UniProtKB/TrEMBL annotation:
PANTHER family: DOMAIN PROTEIN, PUTATIVE (AFU_ORTHOLOGUE AFUA_3G10980)-RELATED. Keywords: Membrane, Transmembrane, Transmembrane helix. It comes from Pedobacter ginsengiterrae. The chain crosses the membrane at residues 20-37, 46-65, 77-97. This is Glycine cleavage system protein H.
Amino acid sequence: MPESNGVGFFFTGFDKMTHLGFFFILSVLLFYGKIAYQHNFGFRTLTIFKIILINVLIGGGIELLQWKVFTYRSGEWWDFACDMLGCFMAVFSYVLLHKLNFNEKSN
């Protein structure tokens, strides 16, 4: 992404926020697919691990491609960190909503 001077739509940090948002949405859609496929809202640690692993592979792969393949892009650790932050935000939301749903049903 071209460097921005903070004027207009593209502000400083827009690229990082985009990474965070896309990986949050990706993770939420993966959780949604899991819930729809299993027809329940069951909490499984293995599912969370798989979704984190998928995000690590996609985020890491994108940054490696930007670093080694594309000459007009550069791979950055901060982009990868924002990818993982978006993923962990979705994991936290899933766990929080599961706990709220579980507590509501048990009362």
